[in-house]
Write a structure and sequence with these properties.
By secondary structure, this protein is an all-beta fold. The protein contains three helices and 55 strands.
Length: 952
Amino acid sequence: MLWTPGLAQETEQAPATGGKRLKILEAERLELRNENNEELVILVGSPVKMDRDGESIEAPRVVYNRTQKRIMLMGGVRYKDKQGQLIEADELELFTDDESFEAIQVKIESGEFYLEGPICQRAAGQILLQEGYLTPCQRCEQEVADYAFQAQEVLLYPGDRIIARGVWVLLRGERTLYLPVLLLFLNERRPKLEFGQSETDGVFVTADLPYVADFGIGFTLLRYFERRGWGFGFDHYGIGAALERYQFLYLPPPAGLVLPDSDPRKDGIFKYRFSYKLEEPGWRLEGQVVRDDSSQAEPRFLQGAGGQPDYTTFLIEGATRQTPTSSEPLYRVTLDGYFDHNPLALPNERTTPKRLPEAEISFPRGIEGEFRLNGRVLLGYYEAPSNPLNRSARRLGPYIGAGRLWVEHRSSYRPTTPPWPGFSFSVENTFIGRYYTTQNFDPQGNPTEFERLIRWDTRASVGQTLGAFSVNLSVSRNVVEGETPFQFDFERPQRTSRLEGSLSFNPDPIFSFTARASRDLERRLFDPPAEFALTSRPFPWFNLTTSISRDLEQGRWGLLRSSLGLSPAPFSLNLVYERQLELGLDRLLTLSAAYNPTPFNFSLRSGYRYWDVQEKETRPPNQIPLIARYDPLELAASYNPPGNTTSLSHSRDLNNGQAIRTELNVVLQEAPDSFRFRQSFTHLYAPLPSVTNPNPAPTPAFLDGLAQLTLSLHTFVFTHTIGFSPGSETRFRLGYQYSADLFQADLLWNYREGLLRNPRLTMRAAVREPEVFINEVSAEFHFPESPNPLTLEDDTQAFLRFVRFSGELEIFPAPLRMEDPPGLSLQGFVALERLTDNSGRFRVTLREFGPTFSFMGLEKTRLFYRMVWNAPESGGTNPREFFLPNLEGTILRPRFDLIIDRCCWAFRASLDTLKQEFKFSFALGGDAAEFLFNQNNIVLPGGIKLPSPGGR
């Protein structure tokens, strides 16, 4: 069977390979064969292009063996897997059942690395290359790679972790060093060497050196400080099924400091984090040990790891896992606590309990069916804050330790088939018992019984339905008794027993009646009051609900609440009436109505509250003080054609006839343009006293408004708040904004007592490009105003209040080719803020601010030279602030950085004249320059990117 050229299409007959679907995208000919009882699919093209669940395959000839689930690719193969690894080979045989393959004459691009060799195999996600050649410099356009490696065997793990054995190191193509084993790259870490001199530590050397062992791979961390001594550590990854990472670092105590005995740094700085996690289908094991004496100390990969100074916290837990085929019970053992290494310091006990240890046996499924039963048992020894309400716990101290046995079981019974129609029955029971090793004491101080805390909840319900009638009866009992020595276990003692009954009558869908009553069996009274409700809905637009409560103990009727709803379109009306039947007093009447003939909307809302105090008054009406009875009347009208809205709303106090608030809104839209106008007037309003607010405060009158015009990317806005009361302030704002964040300018001014106050112009420009950098420039200029004796500023003068710059500004573009001229950019944060002492001076604030020069050389070699300043000075022996225009005879002391980026390696030299220290750093790897830049908070000038694999 042949396919004509151009019949390359995704087809439902595409073969499934190892759970993945193979889609044929381009092919010139397809042939089906049956050889030796094996079904073959043969594709020929120039080349054949296929997709396999996101994997891209190209080859001139493809043979797919459906019987053995193998794909043979021949004649120049390009295979790109989901991890982004590109594999080119003369021939490649892919086994779809386990995703392994074999290939000859292979070239691999994996992340930063380029590998090639005569024979290649992949199994379990690992690629094994025999007689391999590897280098990260392939993409750097170097005629001869600066460094490369020839190895008898290369093993490439997922995540670009490479282990090579029998390695020759090639420098500029020449063999220079033989190594039996080599680890070239490990996740986010980079081999690094750094040395220098600082004012506090003297000469120092730091090195992160990779290693390979049978039990894992990692880095050895070496530190030497002339005035402190030696430090050491490691960063280790395990190899195998478990997720292992062990980090440890010891640094000697800081130099030149006389530390108290309670300071955690006196005996050196310890930082470690050991984590282990192994998950199997039927069980899991994990653990973590953490300590961090100084979060400010190096290295960066341990910062934010958690932990407390002089404390080692640990958590070790093993448990079986529930699976669809696993049997019960399930087991768990947890050890959770800490060690305090400094008894001289005040204790820092945890609020969460220490479990030393805790063991659990649980039956989460238990017995299933009509009768269900599950439960668990926990046994452990705990240390935690004591319960201050427990006398025996108070005698033991604020932080105590005790053993606890937790017994919990939950059961329920619900018959699936009732004994007769309409009958329902269920019962539920929950028991939690906590038993402690602490004991109570009698009045003579002798120990008595052991302490316990019991929680027992039981509920049973029975119901019967007979035609339109339905009866339900339920009984519940909730008991919490005993006490606990621990604060985290505390529950307030209680005992409740309740019997509830309900009756409903539904003879017709338009009518229903419900009665409900509840009796407290402990106090032997009906509580809360019984409720009777009647609902009628004869039409879809009519709804009437009435409910009455009755105190069965006192034989008194309680609250009558009736609600009437009418909603024949386009009208709607809702009335709610409440009356206290026993006292014969009306309580509340509310009304809301609306008329909505599209596109118009009209609505009103108000209410009337009857106050008992006035109903019972015996004083003459002219002596009774006025009390607010009416809720505010809310009136609203709007016109809403497509894309536009015009609305007017008004609220008024019906008690004294005063207006409260009036608001007008107009919105006109025709994308991408729009206009919005809003004016809201708050009237001078003195509300009457009410029961809920006996001493109301008057509201001053003011006008608040907004006018906003948007024309494509341009937005003009004017806002105002005009006060009409004596002493009030009037504020105005005139603003312009371009796009969402690029540019914004606001002119603001105030008026108080007829005088101009604080007129100012604020401008802000920003460039938002998340993949590159964020730039922001802002400034505020103050205009002259009337003299103001309440402030220290010379407000009658015009002056610049502040100017700020943050980000990276490219003055000359960064070079991309060797013939390009050098680039120049400004980076960091700088701010000038005018002092308020009438001196006219500005405080200077600098954070990593300065120029960066960039140069381009042969073979994509880049050089970056940077000078940065920081102010106020936070280092050195004499920290101080700086002011303009007079620097008071001082100079800013910069830090000089020089970085040479050779694409596959980078070198940095840094001289800090403020801290009197210098550093030299060297790092390997395809993004070594970014690695050093990130450590120094440097942005690549112009947002340039370093070379990508293959020079693309």
